[in-house]
Specification:
heterodimer, A: about 300 residues, mainly alpha, MetI-like fold, two-stranded antiparallel sheet, about 0% strand, globular, B: about 250 residues, alpha/beta, six-stranded mixed sheet, binds adenosine-5'-diphosphate, binds magnesium ion
Chain lengths: ~300, ~250
């Protein structure tokens, strides 16, 4: 009895130590980010830091083009991945015959494991020329190309999480829909998908989380020109994202310089933006859930 | 007695598992037909077949016929959607769809193309009254259906089916898991409804079967053991197995 008690205690402590230390590490990283990044907000005047020109060698640290670049690429990715992902999840879960589902599910999960460099390489050598030729543009390295690659990266996550959400909808919802004279499609779109809505939103959030923080593939296919994406054709012109900027410039900046602090400052901004987006999305989910609603 | 549904030599199997074997019976119009027996007897399967709800299940085999008003519901010419509007079904677990009380009741009519708000309002009021739920919910039609109690949710599911004005109502253990008062209310509702509808009920107990049955059919392991007017079956069963079951000697 006593020894059992002792083992219990040891295991409990071990788990506690592991849990606390992982929280500790996250905190340390966060503190480090703040320590290196916060000075940027004092060293660089706000109108410069949030200006439209990013020329670090001339002391111009305008992060706005980078922020907008990230948002543009991410929004494009979501616009492509959301309908495609949900439609695929619906197909896999609701329409495909049993054997096809057994084949498709693991295949989709394998897609998630493709390293992002490989995708970036594929984007550079196959997708970019394709975009350039079909759009007759000067370059195929554009925000749109980045959005495509990111959509592709987010798809496996969106599909499998959305699929799980559909799977969790009680079978009786389907029966109830059918029994009321709904067709299979009406049952899917008006009963099953709305019932799985919060799960589908989670799927999109997770997919988006992967997309906005993604660096490698994006850096390889977006052209990395820090221009303001404010004209109508910006989607099909090169852009530069926040993550790509950090990755590309961190290696060559002098430690402790203003440029160095600004790069960490961009990290803080990225963190804040991601956090806000998640907050908004979570808020939307809760609001919808409270209201109910069947459409 | 008018026959509403005629079941002829019906055999049905899920893969190798035979769920119904050579079932032949009639379901009379404007009466409550009770389908009862131990679990796994094929009662749910029978109801789902009458509504063609098993169409999407893979690997099943069926032979025999089910006639509604003399027409084979599995004939290629049958419009399944129309059939399901004429034959409503209420399931064992009361499960409102996500959304408000009103949305739940309007759901079927909207699918059927009813858009006129006045007409929809009429349907909501009539269906909820028929399901004996109106008084309890009339002040909160636009609140989430999930906030209703179990008995209320089950009556809402009934109202949802009634909204389509079906000719036949299939009820699969609609009162399992409900308290006696809610059960009583639903049974009273059924007595009212049978003036206008043909009702097939899988009861949750033999007592309930005896209380509501105009006609009763006893199913045992996929076989229809016997089928006759309720008062005769429960007082004077023909088959020894029926007698054993209703007197509680097995099952
Ligand atoms: N979807 C299904 N797939 C395979 N077997 C099933 C399915 N539904 C029911 N069965 C089988 O058919 C038999 C009859 O089931 P059911 O109609 O649910 O009986 P009851 O409603 O009388 O309990 C049972 O043996 C059950 O295991
Ligand atoms: Mg059953």
């Amino acid at each position: 009895m006593r020894s059992k008690h002792w083992i219990e205690f040891a295991i409990e402590s071990l788990i506690r130590v592991l849990g606390l230390s992982s929280i500790g590490f996250v905190l340390l990283i966060f503190l480090f980010l703040l320590k290196e990044g916060l000075p940027a907000f004092f060293e660089v005047a706000p109108e410069n830091l949030f200006g439209v020109r990013w020329y670090p060698t001339f002391g111009l640290f305008g992060t706005l083009p980078l922020i907008l670049g990230s948002l543009l690429v991410t929004a494009t990715a979501i616009a492509i991945a959301l309908p495609l992902g949900v439609a695929t999840a619906v197909f896999v879960r609701e329409v495909a015959p049993g054997w096809a589902r057994e084949v498709l599910k693991p295949m989709i999960e394998v897609l998630a494991g493709i390293p992002s460099v490989v995708l970036g390489f594929f984007g550079m050598t196959v997708l970019a020329p394709l975009v350039r030729v079909t759009l007759n543009a000067p370059t195929g390295l554009t925000a749109f190309t980045g959005g495509l690659i990111l959509a592709y990266m987010a798809l496996p996550t969106i599909i499998s999480v959305a699929e799980d959400a559909l799977d969790a909808v009680p079978k009786s919802y389907r029966d109830a829909g059918l029994a009321m004279g709904a067709t299979q499609w009406q049952t899917i779109w008006r009963v099953v998908v709305p019932a799985a809505r919060s799960g589908i939103l989670t799927a999109v959030m997770l997919g988006m989380g992967r997309a906005i923080g993604e660096t490698m593939a994006v850096m390889m296919v977006t052209g990395n020109a820090a221009r303001m994406p404010t004209t109508l054709d910006s989607l099909f012109r090169p852009v530069r994202t926040m993550t790509a900027t950090i990755a590309a410039e961190m290696g060559e900046v002098a430690r402790g310089s203003t440029h160095y602090h600004v790069l960490f400052g961009i990290g803080i901004l990225l963190f804040v933006i991601t956090f806000l987006l998640n907050l908004v999305a979570a808020g939307a989910i809760f609001k919808k859930r409270r209201r109910g609603g069947l459409r | 007695m008018d026959v509403k549904i005629r079941i002829e030599d019906l055999t049905y199997a899920y893969g190798d598992k035979v769920a119904l074997r050579d079932v032949t019976m009639d379901i009379p119009a404007n009466a409550i037909t009770v389908v009862f027996g131990p679990a796994g007897g094929g009662k749910t399967t029978l109801l789902r077949l009458i509504n063609r709800l098993n169409d999407l299940i893979e690997g099943t085999r069926m032979s025999g016929r089910i006639l509604l008003d003399g027409k084979d519901i599995y004939a290629p010419a049958t419009d399944v959607i129309d059939l399901r509007r004429r034959v409503g079904m209420v399931f064992a677990l009361p499960l409102p769809l996500p959304g408000t009380i009103r949305e739940n009741v309007e759901y079927g009519p909207r699918l059927a193309g009813v858009r006129d708000p006045v007409r929809l309002e009429e349907i909501v009021v009539r269906s909820l009254k028929q399901a004996a739920l109106w008084d309890e919910v009339k002040d909160r039609l636009d609140t989430p259906a999930s906030a209703l109690s179990g008995g209320q949710q089950q009556r809402l599911c009934l109202a949802r089916s009634l909204a389509l004005e079906p000719e036949v109502l299939l009820l699969d253990e609609p009162t399992s898991g409900l308290d006696p008062i809610s059960t009583g209310r639903i049974e009273e509702t059924l007595f009212e409804l049978k003036q206008r509808y043909t009702i097939v009920l899988v009861p949750h107990s033999i007592q309930q079967a005896a209380r509501v049955a105009d006609y009763a059919a006893f199913f045992l392991m996929g076989e229809l053991v016997e089928w006759q007017p309720g008062d005769m079956l429960f007082t004077n069963p023909r088959d020894q197995r029926t007698e054993d079951y209703i007197t509680g000697r097995f099952g």
